[in-house]
Amino acid sequence: MERLIVATNNNGKLEEISAILGSHFCVLGMKDAGIDMDIEENGSTFVDNARIKARAIHELIGGHVLADDSGLCIDALNGAPGIYSARFFGKDSTYEEKFIEINRLLDGVPEDNRTAQFVCAIVYIDSNGKEVIAEGRVDGVLLATPRGRKGFGYDPIFYIPELRKTTAEISDTEKNMISHRGRALYHLLQLLETENK
Fold this sequence. Notes:
With 197 residues, the protein is of the alpha/beta class. The chain has one domain: Maf protein (Alpha-Beta Complex). It is 31% helix and 24% strand. The protein has helices at residues 11-21, 46-61, 95-105, 172-178, 180-196, and strands at residues 3-6, 26-29, 64-74, 115-125, 131-142, 158-160, 165-166. It has a 7-stranded mixed beta sheet with strand order 2-1-3-4-5-6-7. A hairpin with a 5-residue loop joins strand 4 and strand 5. The longest helix is centred in the last third of the chain and has 17 residues, at 180-196. It starts with a strand and ends with a helix. The mean pLDDT is 93.
C-alpha cells in the first residue's frame, strides 16, 4: 500500500481522513513522516490554501500528498470566518472563546438566520505531480450553547436540523458520511476511480 502524506498536524482531521482513505493508502500526517515545517496559508480561497500546503509537501518529499483547507462560513457574517476559521478571534484563542465571539457577533440575529456551512476543499497530488481537486460542504445552524463531546473545532455549535444533532453529537461513522470533509474525500475517491478506469 502506497503512502499518502497529509499536510496536517491536526489529529482529529487525520483520523477522519484515515477512516475514509485508510483502505486505499497508508495515511500519515506530517509528524509521522518526519516533516517539521510551517506553511504559510496566504491564499484567498479554501482551494488556494489546500494547494499551497499540498505543493509545499510534494516539493519537499514527492510521493502522494493530500491537503485540505476547511472552515465555517456564516451567512449573517457574509461568509466569515471562512478561510480564517482556525485563526478567528486570534490564532491562540480557544474554541470556547471563538464560540463566545460568534454569539456576540450574532447577537440579535433570529435563530432561523443563524445559518452556516462547513466547507472543505481538498487538493491531492500524485507521485507524478498531477493535481486533483475535490470539494464538499454541509449546511447547518449555529447554536448559542455548545452540545456534544465528539469531533473538534466548531462541531459542538454546528447543528444539522435533519439529524436534530450537532456534529459533536453524532458517531464518527455518521459524521464521516455527511460532513464537509467526508463528502470532499468521497468526491476525491470518485474522481480517482474515474481516472483509473
